[in-house]
Amino acid sequence: MASVGQELLDVPLPEMVLKLGLGVAEAQRALDENSVETAKMLADTMVPIVLAVTQTIAADGSVSFTQAPPVDVSLLQIGLMPTFYQFAEATIEVTMDIKTTLSRETNIKVSAKAKVGFAMWSASVKTDVSHNRKFGKEVRGTSRLVTRMVPVPPPARLEPVLNVVDNRPAPVV
Amino acid sequence: MRGAPEGATGIYGKFGATVQFQDGPQGLFLVVSSNGDPTSRVIAHGGQIALRLNGTGAVVVVRMTLTHALSLQRERGIRMVGGIHMNLERYQALLASVGAAGMTQG
């Protein structure tokens, strides 16, 4: 019968770690692809936004509003960014419940028989002895894989850097 | 996982294992539908419409948990569900670049 220590050694821990690692890598790739798709969608979706509204209060107290012409900008330009996720932690828990039993059973059966006849008699005694030894082993195992996912900042240079070059002449004071 | 939202107790069997998602905080998600307005499906999965982005209503920004977003992603007709967030620095940079100004006195 294998020992409890051997049972613990037989847990396929390297295989579990390998499969968890591959699973995390595959999930990470799918998450990144989804975030890139989201970035493309944000870049392709244009919305008209009004960037300035001017409120004018006339001398007679009347108020009027004029708005700047709407400008078409992408959602990415406005500042909506895709969220990237990253697996921050992965844990493997293996719990084993090992139960071994040993039982012995001895059965003794005794029977006696006697006969009496014409000046004769006979007697016999019969004994049966049996021994049974029973070994039992019960192994129960559960494993638990826990991963924690956290949002992380988007990679640098996801969006183009905006540089403004103002060539207007300086105002004369 | 398609169908009714299951939330924090959402458990489904996969590859012989029991997979469970724990609910996190709510976030913003961009939802793109391939067959019209996804509002009813978003609400069915515990989300709230935060913004409608085009005339057809097929692109919306919703507020929901990641768990619900993952279950919504499996709905038929939902083309994409992606997490987004607002970068206020970039928004301020956009305003500055297009010359958006505050109140001026004439």
Strand order of the largest sheet of chain A: 1-4
Please report the distance between the alpha carbons of the first and last residues of chain B.
61 Å
Write down the Rg of chain A: 43 Å
Overall structural class of chain B, as computed from helix and strand content, comes to alpha+beta
Distance between the termini of chain A: 99 Å
Determine the strand fraction of chain A and express it as a percent band: over 45%
Shape of chain B: globular
**Count the strands of chain A?**
7
Low-confidence stretches of chain A: none
Main sheet attributes: strand count, strand direction, barrel closure of chain A? 2 strands, antiparallel
So how many helices of chain A? Answer: 3
- The tally of helices of chain B reads 3
Q: What percent of the residues of chain B sit in helical stretches (DSSP H or I)?
A: 10-25%
Tally of strands of chain B: 6
* Major interchain interface with per-chain residue totals: A-B, 31 and 34 residues
- For the biggest β-sheet of chain B, the strand order reads 4-5-3-6
